[in-house]
UniProtKB/TrEMBL annotation:
Membrane topology: Multi-pass membrane protein
The protein's name: AzlC family ABC transporter permease
Annotated compartments: Cell membrane
Lineage: superkingdom: Bacteria
Organism: Bacterioplanoides pacificum
Lineage: Bacteria, Pseudomonadati, Pseudomonadota, Gammaproteobacteria, Oceanospirillales
Keywords from the UniProt entry: Cell membrane, Membrane, Transmembrane, Transmembrane helix, Transport
Keyword Membrane: yes
Main location: membrane
Family from the record: Belongs to the AzlC family.
Amino acid sequence: MNSAVNAFTGQPWRHGVRDALPLLGGYIPVAISFGLIAIQAGFSTWEAVVISTVMYAGASQFLFVAMFASGAPLWLIIIMTLLINARHVVYGPNIAPWVPRGRSWPLLMHGLTDQVFALALVRLPQLEQHQRQGWFTGAMLIAWFSWIGGTALGAVAGEELTRRWPLLAEVMPFALPALFLLLIIPKFVSRPWIISLSATLAIALLLKLNGLVNAAIPLAAGCGMLLYYAVDAGSKHRPAARRSTDG
């Protein structure tokens, strides 16, 4: 722990950039896919880039483009986008204890994606309080700019890239799921995490196989979260009960 903290002395934003660099392997291919899909849906290159800059919401962007192109009403597009991004209601309270007070944090939270959140949840507790904002700024900016750049590349040259290398079109959709897998593998180190993550994966798979594709992720995530807290509370209760019996 001390060595990790000492490594960030000096310019923590650079280390934020370094820690977030592996995320680009998932961000850029998916952003290229979005840029290409946005162009195919009738958006201009600049419109696609603006969506990635302002919305910056991954799956919500694909939904937005698809619903807008199909002529869905604006109110329905907004509601569906908010529902997909409701997971940030969970992210906020979990990251808040490690975020120092400051006026710039609301702006920095624009860069709080799923992957940046997972990375920050591990790294921020290892840093001194005065280093956390710099680290988070570096991490979120490199992720954000890679997403914008990937979108621009997909909008300008995505069709040519997939025509020249057809396999690329098949591989790109798997980049983000593979990135998520790499982020959760290190969590398989304790009993609550092993049980809850395994159950989440199993429930999501069962729901998908039974045709409940849209409900699979939120239901599985909710069940996994409840299971984690139940197992964690049980493991804390048992030592207390044992001490009471021994006494």
